[in-house]
Structure formats: structure tokens, C-alpha cells
Model the fold of this input.
Amino acid sequence: MKKPALAIVKIGGNVIEDATALSEFLELFAQLPAPKILVHGGGKRATQLGAQLGIPSKLIQGRRITDAPSLEVAIMVYAGLLNKTIVAGLQARNCNAIGLSGADGNALMAHKRPVKEIDYGYVGDVDGINNNTISALLNAGLVPVFCALTHDGKGQMLNTNADTIASELAIGLANDFDTVLYYCFEKPGVLRKLEDENSVITHINASYYQELLHAGIIADGMLPKMQNCFHALRHRVSRVCIGHIQMLQPGHTRYTTLTL
Amino acid sequence: MKKPALAIVKIGGNVIEDATALSEFLELFAQLPAPKILVHGGGKRATQLGAQLGIPSKLIQGRRITDAPSLEVAIMVYAGLLNKTIVAGLQARNCNAIGLSGADGNALMAHKRPVKEIDYGYVGDVDGINNNTISALLNAGLVPVFCALTHDGKGQMLNTNADTIASELAIGLANDFDTVLYYCFEKPGVLRKLEDENSVITHINASYYQELLHAGIIADGMLPKMQNCFHALRHRVSRVCIGHIQMLQPGHTRYTTLTL
Done:
């Protein structure tokens, strides 16, 4: 039996923090056929609030550390301000959104990242998703909107990368759905030449990915993003699309599709 | 056919802000039989955060005004920090809580309070509840945890009194459930003598309420609370209970029950 399609869309700070981009995105997302799920990152708002409250960003070896005060700020901004702005904005566009952190309905179970060289603090590595909760919401016609927070089941909220949450959701739901993962970011797709926005590579499969890696076309910040995408594809996610938010528009073709 | 029982419990700042009281409450609430709903207020945390951010509390004629910056603070604290602390705490106690504002699943529809003598700002008067959403969540075995925020369906979040949200939920669900409303507050119940905590009146019906009103035993801060309770009872809520959080303990009898 053919599985129903499920779109999982991830947006980051570049969309959330720009009122025009956010409004355009909400229109596009609201018009996508259901079932669908939105995952949003945090952006600079949490850093701003932390600075206003005199909570410095803590970095060790260039990595951001989530100490207890930073976690409180993240919870306020991600689960509070950003999540409710998005949910209320989708409701205004007749999209029956419901905001969630990983603790809500025990949707995303995680554990605090074990301390090796670096203690990342209250950062969660995802153990799995709760299909019962998410299916119940989708079956009720609701549209889950996840912020980048999980919990450990023992009362502790944890900060978790939004890209990872999106791919874990797509993987965890692949048994029941034909899951397509959309990563919206600041570029129109994977570019053959970094400085040329017209050089979007429209399709990359696993073998072409190896070629692009060897040719050094995929490097730096794009590398972990692509690794995350192929991880999802190897775990039965049907398709991953990378590009501007406009890729959600029917008929738009200028973005990168990844398949195995 | 007998309707299933549904407990709707409201807690305020006095419980939320005291770590020991909150932990005790979460234990008691987790042990209540489902279906059940929790509604929580805000407490002083929002005022504190506002002060830290240099956003002064705005009062007109002694009434709190919710201007745009205060609303942002309320969303961060109520829907973010407090709601997720409570949800994660309930999850740790095997209670499958799901945090909600009125915008989530369009659960609580409201309109901005019309300006008469005072412009209260972004304050919402509840128009109704969304039985479809709430029933879907309850049927999935989830335990809704509402913060004191609603929305207007046009993208605007609104600040709404938690007592009112609790009674609107109890009234709106009375068709499908035998709803019992529990208001936890800082006193063990309605007191015959304000200074004597042993003078709890255990049962008040509508005619006894009139007597107590005429005798001046119910006055001041208790008056709007009681009006709200009798409003709920007149709209088919089965029973309203007022007292300390310990009233949720099986066998505890020292609290006030209100009926028609």
C-alpha cells in the first residue's frame, strides 16, 4: 500500500528574524497540503535576550555551551516567543498549528550529551520520537510546530539542533509516511560555485555526492548539513530538498533535491 | 448515559514559584485519574523578567495593562519557561502532559478586550473553546497544560486571566464531561474568619452563598473568584473546589466545595 506523503519543513533564524520573510514563509507553508510538520530554529533572538539579561554566550573551543541560564533563555525564546508567533501566524492563515517542544506529549526523547572533551551543558542527543503522540496529532488534522528543544524524561529540558530534530522526525515517521524533508536556508540550494547563486545543482544522488565531495565543491558549513541529509536518506526518508523558502511554491524548480 | 469525569485544575503563582510546592503539586496532579487538564497562571516571574529588561509594569487606575513589550515577556515566561518546566516535570512523573496556549490547535479563541474607560492592551476575552482539539488530545491520552494566553485568530496572542481560562474550559467541556473545577490558592478554602485557617466552610451552595454575601463573609478579593465559580456552576459545571493543593490528595476533606 502506498504510504501517504508527509512534508517536514525546517526553517532557521534567517527566516524567523525577518518579518517579511517569515510572513512569506507562513503563507507558503500554510498552503502546503497536510499532513505536514514544521521545525524552527532559534536565531539571534536568544543571544540578544541573553545579552540583555547579562548572560554571556559561553563558548569552549568555538562550540556554544548551554549552561543553566542559557537554557532558560532558549526555552523562553524558542518555546515561548518564536513558537507562539509562528503558531498564531499559521492559525491566522487557516493552518491548525500546534506548538511543541520535545517534552510535550513526550514527542522527542533525548539524553544529555555525554561529556567527552567538551561539556556542552544542557544539550540533548535525540534517542527517538514518540510516534503515538505525533500520529494522534496528525490524525486530528493538527500541524505540529516543533521548536529546538527536547527533554530527558526526568524533568530536564535540553537544547537540540533543529536540523537534527527535523531529520529524526522524518526518519522516525518513515515507516508510516513517505517523508520528504525540506531544509530552508539562506541559499537557493547546493551551489556549484559558492559565489554564484545561479549555479544551483538541482539533483544530487549518493554517487554524485561522492564526486562533489572529492572535487571539494561540498565543504565547510555545507558538509555537516549534507551528512545529516544523507543520514536521513539512508534511513528511508524519501527525499531531501535544500533551498530558499520559495522551493515550497508549486512549480518552483530552482533548489537541490537529494536522493540515494 | 453517565458522562465521564474530567478534572480541571488551576494553579497560580504561589505554587509555581515555590519549588517545593510545585514539586508536591506535580506529584498530586500526576496521580489524579485522567482525563484531566491543568491551567497555570504566571506569577511574579514575568514581572521580574520585565524589570530586568527595563520594561516597567504599566498600571492604569490600579489595573495592569498589557502593552506590546509586556505581552512578549508574558509569552516568554508563561508559554516558555513556566509551561515547559511544568510539562517536563509531569513527564518525569509519567503524566503525558502537552503544553498549550490558546493559539495551539486554536484551543481558546478570544478577542482583544474592547476599549471602554481603560485600554487594557493585549488582553483577551474568551469567545469559546475548541472542543475538537481538546477532545482529540484527551482521547489520545494526553494531559493538556494551558498557560494564560489566548489568540484572536488573526495572528495576535493575548493575555488572559488563568481563572477565566479554567472556568471557560470547564463550561465548554460540560456537554461531554462531568467537569469538576479545582482552584488551588494560598488558603485552605473559603474561611468563615479570614484570620482563622481552621474556619474552612466545607460546602457552599447558591442560597448559602447569598447568606455569606449578606453577612459580609465573602468580600474583597474573594468576591470575583466566587462570582467566577458560580458562573461556571450555572453553566453546567458539576462542582467547584477551592483550597490548598492538598485538596487533590484522596481522602483530604478540608477545602470548600461549591455547588448550585
